[in-house]
Fold this protein.
Amino acid sequence: MTYTGPVLEDMDALDTTCMAILGDGIEYQPAGGAFAPLRAYVDYGEAERDLQTGKVIAQDITVEAMHADVPIRPSAVCRVQLGKRPGDTFRPVNVRNSEDGTHWRFELEKVSA
């Protein structure tokens, strides 16, 4: 007997629905494009940085955006603005796929507008 029920690859609709409800509002500007609103998971956590003079706590923002919303891998020339950090502009760094392969996962580095 062959299983014909839903499989993980069929769950894209669930990803889209969850993102629409639970995602944070951001603005994303691809290379050579204009800013456009989209929903993404944003973790505003902090990270401990070890300096020669001591340790400091620094902002360590991580974004997860669906491949469907950002079809081309984000690069350093792309820009991101966050709804919770108005007036600040960031660039993606350390871009990689999520564990399930449906999202881009990256950290943000603040840039001058």
